[in-house]
Design brief:
The complex is a heterodimer of chains A (148) and B (414). With 148 residues, chain A is an alpha+beta fold. Chain A has helices spanning 4-9, 18-29, 34-43, 48-57, 77-81, 84-95, 140-145, and strands at residues 69-74, 108-113, 125-127, 130-132. Chain B folds into three domains: 20-220, NADH-ubiquinone oxidoreductase 51kDa subunit (Rossmann fold); 228-313, Roll (Ubiquitin-like (UB roll)), CATH 3.10.20; 318-404, NADH-ubiquinone oxidoreductase 51kDa subunit, iron-sulphur binding domain (de novo design (two linked rop proteins)). The chains are: A alpha+beta (148), B alpha/beta (414). The complex binds flavin mononucleotide, iron/sulfur cluster and FE2/S2 (inorganic) cluster.
């Protein structure tokens, strides 16, 4: 596993690069660890409070640990009318957790999101940003059991 | 029979969008060559004359916007808005996936017009694969020497609808929370890192190569005279063909939905269409013969917006859909100004009450007052547009609200 110090160093000197650095940290750790956030703040010359403010503004960034697979269900109007609610229920049932939680084994985190721009094939779920199209509640066990 | 008119997407799936060589083979980068041979002023005049207006929602004349940029500023930026957060919209993704080089060429043309050598593309975090594609496309264009001294960097957003607002987008590129700035100063005068910046939508930029090669008159002659050209629309919801189409701007909504779109799914009847994304108005059947161009849509109290077309069939519960939309705005409000932070919260609260069968006529009146306040007093377009779905459905589908109210006087409940 790459070291957060090295990751942040890659973005030093890039104007406005803290969000890019956060993305890179999340690619590695699935969230932004507290020490990494502190170091990023120092590297980009802002206070830790400000860096925290940035990290918590964006729904894609998380300052809390998350699972290996981040499952997100789109809830925007086109997915809503295509039955997003029922898919949410199926995911919660299958994983045994509620929205916003992570499974005890640290494998899955389940989140809601807004439109991801794939509304030609609603409802849409993403697994680590990969979209899965035209999802029905019945397909959920098959889709999630494929995450090893 | 209404037909597509493909300009930006003529070579969709026929060329590799990342390859500058493929694009050059079908006439690409000729527009930039021509632009570079022109005086800056004449180039801006040409774009003005084409009548090209912003495709990101506000419909501002592109050449006019560029003309506000001070000529003598030493550093200026060209920024492409690829935030595409408006639910139901996927046209900018399609433009990139089918014709990314046209976007790059369009940005370089803008660079030539305002005297900028640095462009940024702000791509939403939901499209990491588009970020990859664009980076490869830029590499390829550089390797072909197609962009000359114009450089483009791709930055990725992180899931915030408000970052589509141009000043919030600039804040985000600067590495801050994406909160809109007060305007003026407009970005054209004081934008990214305080210097003059042109922000345009993907589709706006992608029109430019064709305007330059085929001429301003040619473009001005397509579709509606006051909002000429083509528009890429994305169909979603209860329509047979949920896909994209590139159409002349004088095509009517009825043609888009019933001819290209194949009509309502499963043999059901049409109830409403929401155009322009989740911040758009709901339009009843009676207004379907309206052309999709910016001004015609404005005349029926709606907006073309991003060109998203969400169709609802006769069985859909309008109040439920609008309740869901009110949650979207509560979630996406950045909280900087009070009318929106508090207003989107109250809209959601009241809509939920009505949707759950606990609302009263007073709630509907309050929503209408709140809507006026938000449209007038919110700082940015998010808070101003948030009540529009509510307002337009109270106007056109009031019976659906009344049906859900608590039965007190015998007025509701049937
Ligand atoms: C809340 C909000 C979200 C917006 N989202 C987008 C967007 O995703 N893409 C876009 O091009 N413009 C968006 N806009 C409009 C931009 O502020 C701006 O007008 C546009 O990028 C200008 O480009 P254009 O003149 O080429 O349309 C949004 C505006 C608001 C208020
Ligand atoms: S209108 Fe809403 S999104 Fe816009 S600045 Fe105000 S609080 Fe933020
Ligand atoms: S509404 Fe769900 S992907 Fe667009």
């Amino acid at each position: 596993m790459a070291n957060y110090v090295d990751i942040i160093e890659l973005y030093r000197g890039k104007k406005g690069g803290i969000i890019e650095a956060f993305h890179a940290l999340q690619n590695e750790f699935n969230y932004i660890p507290e020490e990494a956030l502190g170091l990023a703040a120092k590297t980009f010359g802002i206070s830790e409070a400000e860096a925290y403010g940035v990290a918590t503004f964006y729904s894609y960034l998380s300052v809390k640990p998350r699972g290996k697979y981040i499952i997100r269900m789109c809830e925007s109007a086109p997915c809503h009318i295509a039955g997003a609610d029922r898919v949410v229920k199926a995911i919660e049932d299958y994983l045994g957790i509620n929205v916003g939680e992570t499974t005890a084994d640290g494998k899955f985190t389940f989140e809601l999101c807004e439109c991801i721009g794939q509304c030609q094939a609603t409802p849409v779920v993403t697994i680590n940003s990969e979209p899965v199209f035209n999802v029905s509640p019945e397909q959920i066990p098959e889709i999630l059991s494929a995450c090893k | 029979m209404a037909q597509e008119y493909r300009v930006l997407l003529e070579y969709a799936d026929k060329i590799n969008p990342a390859s500058a060589a493929d694009y050059i083979n079908v006439g690409g980068y000729k527009g930039l060559e021509k632009a570079r041979g022109m005086e800056r002023k004449a180039l801006i005049e040409e774009v003005k004359k084409s009548g090209l207006r912003g495709r990101g929602g506000a419909g501002f004349n592109a050449g006019m916007k560029w003309s506000f940029v001070p000529q003598d500023a030493p550093v200026k930026y060209v920024v492409c808005n690829l935030d595409e957060g408006e639910p139901g919209t996927y046209k900018d993704r399609i433009i990139c996936q089918k014709n990314a080089q046209a976007l790059l060429e369009g940005m370089a043309i803008c660079g030539a017009a305002i005297g900028s050598s640095q462009g940024y593309i702000y791509c939403r975090g939901e499209y990491p694969f588009v970020v990859d594609l664009l980076r490869r496309a830029i590499e390829s264009a550089k390797a072909e020497g197609a962009l000359g001294d114009f450089d483009i960097e791709v930055r990725m957003g992180a899931g915030a609808y408000v970052c589509g607002e141009e000043t919030a987008l600039i804040e985000s590129i600067e590495g801050h929370r994406g909160e809109p700035r007060f305007k003026p100063p407009f970005p054209g005068v004081e934008g990214l890192w305080g210097v003059p910046t042109v922000v345009n939508n993907v589709e706006t930029f992608a029109c430019l190569p064709y305007i330059l090669t085929r001429g301003a008159e040619w473009f001005a002659g397509i579709g509606a005279p006051k909002y000429p050209g083509t528009k890429i629309v994305t169909l979603t919801g209860d329509v047979v063909n949920t896909t994209w189409f590139e159409v002349p701007t004088d095509m009517t909504l009825r043609e888009v939905i019933f001819e290209l779109g194949g009509g309502v799914k499963n043999g059901k009847k049409f109830k409403a269409v929401q155009v322009g994304g989740t911040s758009g108005a709901f339009i009843p059947e009676a207004n379907l013969d309206c052309p999709i161009d910016f001004d015609s849509m404005g005349n029926i109290g709606a907006a073309l917006g991003s060109g998203a077309v969400l169709v609802l069939d006769e069985t859909r519960d309008i109040v439920d859909v609008v309740t869901r939309i009110s949650k979207f705005f509560e979630h996406e409000s950045c909280g900087k100004c009070n009318p929106c932070r508090e207003g989107t919260f109250r809209c959601r609260e009241i809509m939920e009450r009505i949707n759950n069968g606990n609302g009263s006529e007073k709630d509907i009146e309050n929503l209408q007052v709140l809507s006026k306040v938000m449209q007038k007093a919110a700082l940015c377009g998010l808070g101003q547009a948030a009540p529009i779905p509510i307002d337009s459905t109270i106007k056109h589908f009031k019976h659906e609200y009344l049906r859900k109210l608590v039965v007190t006087s015998g007025k509701g409940g049937h």
